[in-house]
Structures are given as structure tokens and as C-alpha cells.
Write a structure and sequence with these properties.
The structure holds 2 protein chains of 2 kinds. By secondary structure, chain A is α/β, with parallel strands linked by helices. Chain A has 11 helices and 18 strands. In chain A, strands 1, 2, 8, 9, 10, 11, 17 and 18 form an 8-stranded mixed β-sheet that branches. In chain A, a hairpin with a 2-residue loop joins strand 10 and strand 11. The longest helix of chain A has 17 residues, at 152-168. Chain A is globular and about 65 Å long. Chain A starts with 32 loop residues before the first helix and ends in a 16-residue tail after the last helix. The relative contact order of chain A is 0.17. By secondary structure, chain B is mainly β. Chain B has a single domain, classed as Folate-binding superfamily (Folate-binding fold), CATH 3.30.2270. Chain B has helices at 34-41, 82-86; strands at 2-5, 9-12, 17-21, 50-56, 64-70, 76-81. A 4-stranded antiparallel β-sheet of chain B has the order 3-4-5-6. In chain B, a hairpin with a 5-residue loop joins strand 5 and strand 6 (76-81). The longest helix of chain B has 8 residues, at 34-41. Chain B is globular and about 40 Å long. Classes of the chains: A alpha/beta, B mainly beta.
Chain lengths: 444, 87
């Protein structure tokens, strides 16, 4: 493993994709910088909606329950990779109104365990071609991610992790304290409580524009014939003789040969419609955004003592968060002790942010599994599939999750990068416990 | 959030450690099938509404509490001592 230093300039493709992607659809018209300029010259009157608003048909080959990132990417790859276009995505609210529309936008492939490692590696590769693939600016910015360590033991753990990343074919650079200082001179290196020993730099890690990912996949799926049906809540799953037949919705019954449940924090409720009891407990995770500031934090940074991570959005806001609130919740809001903890950790690590004003905070509903790893699998009902258990790491997984779920639904076989995301692993004891914290839903 | 401990009274959430759902009280026998252990360790009702979960009064009386709590509103409707419940 290479020790230390790499040029601090990690702002790779912030602007490479230009301004394409704002506004509407063109049946044959691709988004481009030229089109933005042309539209701008003629009053922006040529834009059309980015996707249709169809009424549900009586029957589809595939129904996807859930119009978030994972549901939309699954629909997109069903059409793109498998030619299955008679597909409906049913969303109870509006597209991308769940966790894909509110998250801390980090994209990385720094996993350790076989099973996770190849999956997130595949996902990062898809991210790297996503804007060209979707003809949509998702503002993927590989600005580099640095996980800090604060003791010899933690350094050893990160060396192992870095070697696992390199073995997987991804990138990792071990930085000593001076190496970190070159990248992040503003950290409090002098403190005695949590001295910074160094960090693991993942240069290809970074961020992306969260809701643009949903919109890009939605537009791409729509253009390939997928019906995106909003304000359509699934109220029941029709099963006859152990085979799925369709769903009941607030907009009527819809027959389907195959149904995918991809509903994140609400997985337990929807799976219960098929008589399933999942290894999932829904927890609240808070995050915070400050007022817009001039560029000050170039990377994604995580603190190794006390859970805290931070990046700066292209709009200028500091986006940061920490741990779960640790109790089961669907309230979409958290409590003050975790707010206090996150602020304390941030101030400990980088006192310079202390005068920034927090503009807003929110709580997302996380589908936590007992080992902290997800599920992409068949169910006991023929034709019914489930993609859930993304804990608080679902955003970066959106491309590979859709890719793998589409493969499973189309072929009946797990995709090779998602083979270990089986539901039965809990019963058989083959847990994928990346953090090694044991079988408790809130500890991952 | 505040929890009303039956022994200590109304206390801040910081004094408590959350463990998980009531299922952890129903420990199977060693000879029970794997599915019973799977349910005990992993599978949950996970309701959006009233649930019962285990909290430990770590910075107080060191009692395990069974708390009836609404996961949508965070309203707490009942708190009982696990020790009394199983006695």
C-alpha cells in the first residue's frame, strides 16, 4: 500500500457535465449544453416534461412498488439490460420523495467484506458512467473521501480495509498525519483527546446530486416505455396458490406477472401484505445543512471518533450527519441528544465551522438489518421479489441495486455481485456484518 | 424524548440505552428449531404505530424497562419494569 500523499486537487468532474439536464424531456432531443443556451436565447419555451404521467394499465409484466432511487433504477435496468419495458413503478407520493430526495449524497466503494466489496465496486463503476448513460447531469463529483483514524489500532484496521479495497480493484491511499494535513489543513490536529494519526484516502469517492439521480433514472425509464405512476399507494398484494398475481392500489387493482418490493423504511409494512416478517427495524437518522458558504471543504471527511461525516454541496452548504438516534422510529424527525452529539463531534474535529449557521435538519427512515447489509432476493411467493435493508448506505448503492434487482427479476438468478444479499443468511448464520457489531438492528 | 421510569420518574432520553424490540424477552430454548432463533434475533414486526421495546436505565436505577411507544409520534403510553413483568 502506498503511504502518504497525493495532490490535494481532487475536484475532478464538478463541472465536466456542464449545465445539461435542467428542465424537460425531449422525445428525441437529448439534453446538452447547446440546448440550454438555445433555450435560454428563446425564453426557455421549448422544454417539455421529463416524463409522462400515465394512468395505470390493468396489467403489466412487472410492477415495482416504490418510486425512489432503487425502484427507479430497477425499472430502468429492466428495460435497458433485459428488454422488459411493460413495467410500472408505483409511488405513493411523488417520485424521489423519500430518502433519495434527502440524504448526505456520499458515493464510495470502501467496503471490506467479500459480498459487500464487489457490489459497491460495481456500483461505483456504474456511477462513473452514469451521466453519459442517462444523458443527465447527476453532478457526480469524485472529490475524494478521507476516513480519519486516531489510534494505532484504528490505523491497522484501515490498512486492512485499504488493502481489501485495492484487492477489489478500487483505490485506497494511506495518509499519515502530514499527508492528511496537506489535504485538510483546517482540522484540529493539536488536540490531545482525539489526536489525528492519519487517514485512508479513497480518491474515487465523492458525492452526487441526490434527487438528480432519481430524476435521471425516472426520465431514462420513461423514455424506454416504463409507466411511472405517482400518488398510487399499494394497499395489498394479490397472491393465489403461492404465486403473485398483482397488487391492490388506491388507484385500483393492477395485475402483474412479477412484483418487486423496493420501499426502504416501509419495507416491513409492504412485506406484511405478503405475509412476511422481515429482519428489519426502521430507525431515524438525522442530517444537517448549513447556510451556503464559499468553498471550504473539498473532500468528504469522516471522523473516526464519535460518528461524524461532512462534505460541502456545490451550492455551498455544509452537509453533515452522524449516528442513528438508536431507537426504532418512523417519525422522520430526531431528538436533541443526537443533534448535540453531532455538533460536538463536528466542533471537535474542525472548530472552524463553529460560526456557520445550521439552516435545516431532517430525519430519514432507515431500514436497518441485524448485520447492516442489504437484501436483494426472491421471497417465499413465486414472482415476488424484495430489495430492502439498505440501512443508512442506500444512496451509493442505487445503480448496482437496480442493476442486480433487475437481473434477479428478469432471470430468476442473483446477479454475481449481489449473491450474498440473501434473505436466508440470517437463519443460516451467514451474516455480512461489515462493522462487526453483532446481531442488533441499531448498531450498524 | 423523556421516559418515565417506574422507579426514578421522568428522565431524559440520554439516561437510557435502547436495546430493541420486545422480542428479545422471548428467548427460545436451546433445542428449539433455527427458525425460532431467527425470529428471536432478527425478524421484527417493526410497526409504524405502537410498539413495545426494551430500554435500560443505564444512568439511573439499572433496571430494564418495557416501553410502549408510538414510533410515528414518539408518544410513550406505558413503561413497566421487566423484572416485575417476568416475576
Amino acid at each position: 500500500m502506498i503511504v502518504r500523499t497525493r495532490p490535494a486537487d481532487c475536484h475532478t468532474n464538478l463541472f465536466m457535465s456542464g449545465a445539461r439536464g435542467f428542465g424537460g424531456r425531449g422525445n428525441s432531443m437529448r439534453y446538452s449544453g447547446l440546448r440550454v443556451i438555445t433555450e435560454g436565447l428563446f425564453g426557455n419555451k421549448g422544454w417539455t416534461p421529463a416524463w409522462r404521467d400515465p394512468a395505470p394499465k390493468a396489467e403489466y409484466d412487472v410492477v415495482i412498488i416504490g418510486g425512489g432511487g432503487h425502484g427507479l433504477s430497477t425499472a430502468y435496468y429492466l428495460a435497458r439490460n433485459h428488454g422488459i419495458t411493460n413495467v410500472a413503478v408505483l409511488e405513493k407520493g411523488h417520485l424521489g420523495s423519500g430518502n433519495i430526495g434527502r440524504n448526505t449524497t456520499i458515493v464510495r466503494a470502501n467496503y471490506f467484506l467479500p459480498g459487500n466489496s464487489e457490489f459497491y465496486s460495481h456500483s461505483l463503476k456504474l456511477w462513473e458512467g452514469l451521466e453519459a448513460e442517462l444523458n443527465y447531469n447527476v453532478m457526480h463529483s469524485q472529490r475524494g473521501l478521507i476516513n480519519l483514524f486516531h489510534s494505532d489500532g484504528q490505523r491497522d484496521a484501515f490498512v486492512r480495509r485499504g488493502n481489501a479495497m485495492i484487492n477489489q480493484g478500487d483505490d485506497a491511499v494511506l495518509l499519515d498525519q502530514e499527508g492528511v494535513r496537506e489535504h485538510l489543513p483546517y482540522l484540529d490536529f493539536e488536540q490531545t483527546r482525539f489526536p489525528i494519526y492519519g487517514g485512508l484516502l479513497h480518491p474515487r469517492g465523492g458525492t452526487a446530486r441526490h434527487d438528480a439521480v432519481a430524476w435521471g433514472y425516472a426520465r431514462g425509464a420513461d423514455r424506454r416505455g416504463v409507466d411511472l405512476i405517482q400518488n398510487c399507494e399499494v394497499t395489498g398484494i394479490d397472491i393465489q396458490g403461492g404465486v403473485v398475481r398483482g397488487v391492490q392500489t388506491t388507484r385500483g387493482a393492477i395485475r402483474a406477472k412479477k412484483v418487486g418490493i423496493i420501499v426502504a423504511g416501509r419495507s416491513s409494512q409492504v412485506a406484511a401484505m405478503a405475509g412476511m416478517r422481515l429482519p428489519v427495524e426502521s430507525h431515524v437518522l438525522q442530517a444537517f445543512v448549513t447556510e451556503g458558504l464559499k468553498p471550504v471543504i473539498d473532500h468528504v471527511i469522516s471522523f473516526g471518533m464519535g460518528h461524524f461525516y461532512i462534505s460541502q454541496s456545490d451550492k455551498g452548504g455544509l452537509v453533515f450527519g452522524g449516528d442513528l438516534d438508536f431507537y426504532a422510529s418512523y417519525a422522520a424527525r430526531g431528538n436533541l441528544p443526537m443533534v448535540e452529539h453531532v455538533m460536538e463531534a463536528g466542533m471537535t474535529l474542525m472548530p472552524m465551522i463553529g460560526r456557520a449557521k445550521v439552516l435545516r435538519s431532517w430525519g430519514g427512515i432507515m431500514d436497518m438489518t441485524p448485520d447492516g447489509s442489504p437484501v436483494i432476493d426472491k421471497t417465499h411467493v413465486e414472482g415476488l421479489f424484495i430489495d430492502c435493508g439498505w440501512n443508512y448506505g442506500g444512496f451509493k448503492a442505487v445503480p448496482a441495486s437496480g442493476w442486480s434487482m433487475a437481473h434477479l427479476m428478469a432471470t430468476g438468478e442473483s446477479h454475481e455481485v449481489a449473491r450474498k444479499f440473501r434473505l436466508e443468511r440470517f437463519a443460516t448464520g451467514h451474516l455480512l456484518d461489515e462493522e462487526g457489531t453483532g446481531s442488533q438492528h441499531n448498531l450498524h | 424524548m423523556r421516559l418515565k421510569c417506574p422507579l426514578c420518574g421522568d428522565r431524559d432520553r440520554r439516561e437510557f440505552y435502547y436495546y430493541g424490540a420486545e422480542d428479545f424477552l422471548n428467548r427460545p430454548e436451546a433445542a428449539d428449531p433455527g427458525s425460532a432463533w431467527d425470529d428471536y434475533l432478527h425478524n421484527r414486526d417493526n410497526p409504524a404505530g405502537v410498539t413495545k421495546d426494551l430500554w435500560y436505565h443505564e444512568a439511573g436505577c439499572s433496571q430494564w424497562l418495557l416501553v410502549a411507544r408510538n414510533t410515528v409520534t414518539h408518544e410513550i403510553s406505558a413503561v413497566e419494569l421487566v423484572a416485575e413483568r417476568t416475576a
